[in-house]
Design goal:
The structure is a homodimer of 385-residue chains. Chain A has 385 residues and is an alpha/beta fold. Chain A is built from 15 helices and 8 strands. Chain A has a 6-stranded parallel beta sheet, with helices on both faces. The longest helix of chain A has 23 residues. The model of chain A has no long low-confidence stretch (mean pLDDT 97). At the A-B interface, β1, α8 and α9 of A face β1, α8 and α9 of B. Chains A, B: Belongs to the iron-containing alcohol dehydrogenase family.
């Protein structure tokens, strides 16, 4: 078991009718900018419920944050924050809206070129506006962590940053809000959360039993409840179990004493940045290919995963590892996620471009053993054709 | 799945050589009172390591906090806090020292009769001195929660209070510190943590899959690693897995969306208060008796526990429940904890006294269904003879 620091002060308000409580979480008389996305929160009435709850605050709105939020869009929100003297940000949306709000919070208090926030991985951030969240999709876990992913549309650079200053003060998780999600978004969310767990779990054994077993607990829950939510979108317990799993998947608990991979995310992010595929779509393509490429290094944990999550009967480690990869691909496909680049009309021609971006971003020597070079990424992408 | 609020801002520094970091966690020039227990931290050198780390602070010491810390002792520390203008408390010890430090932190800033802090269950607490912890035994989980148990020696009242103001700012968890614990303290700690989990897990099903599976993860880890630590006290991974399990057992994660019992604790506390048994000893006596008494209400979860934690082959629910009770008793006994009042020379004569204390403290209609009356407590104690 490795040393670790765990610190997650985000307050989670979970269940039915939680939005009404946000008034107690935001100090009176704050000038609040509500940040949201494409308008589904208007249609579903969630935005109105939020505004109704903010009885004692001065409320402004900024809509139109796109999936994989654009730096250019977010900088327009920063202008409003400054001109309207906003002192609290309330993200109402999914991972993209929350990630975007984290960037706005840091950029509004940063002197200088705000792209440095992202380029420095967040190390230049020394202050940020306070943030609250009302989550509308179970997926990224952004509602309970300090990470944000932002895309510069101009250069197609999709990059993450992290800072304790952008940790939300609170996050409202109402499973019922997710009843009306389009099926593909539900599926994307489940697969995204599933892969967040795998990135922290399928590495090599260090005898850290709690993160291992917690990872297995969350994976089993998502594999059971994910399909239910597709068939019965208003199954409250399925939605609640998925939502809390997705949050727990990336709130630091699974990183308590274990190594982590994250190479699938690094490679997948470049594909989204360049070709616009959904985040979860890229992960479902890259992960199985990466596992095939790194099987020797990961076989002990792949076998453990096969046994403990999928109840694969005991066999040789290598056989178990193969079965783990196979059954994971089947699960993604059963959720409606494709697992090959060709499924999206992409072929070998993309490989040099993805590799070039990885090199430009310094994302080489990645993975839990820092062994995945730019050349390995090219090999992995070949396995993903 | 039930609604819940989760909020735990305690920073955990876990692993080897973590004490050196506390200097960065306590603001410079603070006047720090180190609170400790019976002197084992002097012998083991832990106290010296802590003092060496506090380079930029003014350090005072208060030793002699007993197991089940006495109000009377803690009030002497409050005097020192006031006379020396202490503005940071550093608990170096186990659950009793940390609980005591929480009381000192609240009492030092409370005007009026400080026993009201306990009598009000903490509701009168509106401020407290900041607290840090260096944990020396894996057991109570006090290092990552807002609860404290204090005993008034004069009246033999052992009572808990809770307040967000007494949450530690940070807790240092070094598994190596626990290598030198006496075997009975290691065993007490494992059983205490085990029962903290059971109090939140063995109630009735509400389809909250994450706290259920997390509980099972922690229980399995403790049942595997507990015996190892008794045989090989310096097994680092065993100690580390136990330590993180005990902290996770009572940091709020297991209460996310589930009912909780806590009647075993309520009854056990009166026995410690009146007769001085160790906390874990009383729990190991009361829990199996309470389960027998409440079997009909708890059988679904007892059967789930038997299957998922102890791999008991599937059978009728009632049979599974009986086996769950039996195997739990065997586990406690194998760890060296006795499970009957008679093992400590106590008999039927204690029952009216325990029941009287429960009544006096308003601890009637307890348990997850508020069904355990004073009369039921008497029946439970009969089953524990």
């Amino acid at each position: 078991m490795e040393n670790f620091t765990f610190h997650n002060p985000v307050k989670v308000l979970f269940g039915k009718n939680q939005i009404a409580q946000i008034n107690q979480e935001i100090p009176k008389d704050k000038r609040v900018l509500i940040v949201y996305g494409g308008g589904s929160v208007v249609k579903t009435g969630v935005l109105q419920r939020v505004k109704d709850a903010l009885e004692n605050e001065v409320v402004f709105e900024f809509g139109g944050v796109e999936a994989n939020p654009h730096y250019e869009t977010l900088m327009r929100a920063v202008e409003i924050v400054k001109s309207e003297k906003i002192d609290f940000l309330l993200a109402v949306g999914g991972g993209s809206v929350i990630d975007g709000t984290k960037f706005i919070a840091a950029a509004a208090m940063y002197e200088g070129d705000t792209w440095e926030i992202v380029k420095s991985y967040g190390s230049v951030v020394k202050a940020a506006l306070p943030i609250g969240c009302v989550l509308t999709i179970a997926a990224t876990g952004s509602e309970m962590n300090n990470v944000s992913v932002v895309t510069k549309a101009e250069t197609k650079d999709k990059l993450f940053f992290g800072s304790p200053f952008v940790l939300p003060k609170f996050s409202v998780l109402e499973p019922e809000i997710t009843f009306t999600l389009p099926q593909n978004q539900t599926a994307n969310g489940v697969v995204d959360a599933f892969i967040h767990i795998l990135e922290q779990y399928v590495t090599y054994p260090v005898n850290a039993k709690i993160p291992d077993r917690f990872a297995e607990a969350l994976l089993k829950t998502l594999k059971e409840e994910g399909p239910k939510a597709l068939v019965t979108p208003d199954d409250y317990d399925a939605r609640a179990n998925i939502m809390w799993s997705a949050t727990m998947a990336l709130n630091g608990i699974l990183a308590t004493g274990t190594p982590a991979d994250w190479a699938t995310h690094m490679i997948g992010q470049e594909i989204t940045g360049l070709y616009g595929l959904d985040h979860a779509q890229t992960l479902a393509i890259v992960l199985p290919a990466l596992w095939k490429f790194c099987k020797a290094d990961k076989s002990a944990k792949l076998a453990q995963y096969a046994a403990n999550v999928w109840d694969i009967p005991s066999a040789e480690e290598d056989v178990m590892a193969d079965k783990a990869i196979e059954i994971t691909v089947d699960f993604f496909e059963s959720m409606g996620l494709k697992t090959h680049l060709a499924d999206y009309g992409l072929g070998e021609e993309i490989i040099p471009h993805v590799v070039e971006k990885l090199r430009a971003h310094g994302h080489v020597n990645i993975g839990e053993k820092q062994k995945i070079t730019a050349e390995s990424a090219a090999e992995i992408l070949k396995l993903a054709l």
